[in-house]
Design brief:
240 residues, alpha+beta, outer membrane lipoprotein receptor (LolB), chain A, 3 helices, 11 strands, globular
Length: 240
Amino acid sequence: MAPRTQRRLACAAWGALLWGAAAANPAPQPDEASIIRMIDAEVQHRVQSVQGFTDIEHYRVFRGGDQTHPVAEMTAKDTYRKGAGKTYTVLSQSGSDIVQKFGLKPLIENEERINHPATVAQSWFNSANYTMTLKPGGMQKLNGRDCYALSIAPRQKAPQMIDGTLWVDAHDGSIAQVEGVASKSPSPFAGTTHMMRQYAQIEGFPMATHARAESSSVLFGHTVVLIDYSDYHLQVAPHP
């Protein structure tokens, strides 16, 4: 047998051997319980550490099939204080007065209500509020981050609770993105609301950077709301 043929057969044999070893010992799947514990710990760390923050939020509302020309816009400063909740200061607004009054104003009022100290814990993305099931496929890339995806379902239905998917950072359990549908309509006149919110690490903590909500209602028809969050300033408790 020619030397070149012998080398090819040897390479093929080694390749088959290595493939067989890999098949016999597949990469271990991440442990679902450990990931959920990591998520809970990260939520608690953020709650204990972030004493307050401010940010600027820009809202745009689109009607029908036009997602180029907003029918209304609003820019507001959001101020959060632990133990006090959120307050909004409107910096500018333009467009439809009806959309401002019946769309955007209730939206920020709802954010203030959700973040009231007496009820804010009910909206956290943790295992106390949601059942969580790790999706197959292992670690995946999302916006340049290594993440795990989990199916989530709220333990109690409410307009701010989401049935859908939660993506968390594979290394620390911090939220990277959430997407799904509101588990309960905020109004008998509103249809299903599809929601998505993206997060980034700001001073070491996950903070919202972009959100999208799409719904249909008797009053407004098909509506898309885009929110961009910027200019964060955090007040963080010192380490003990």
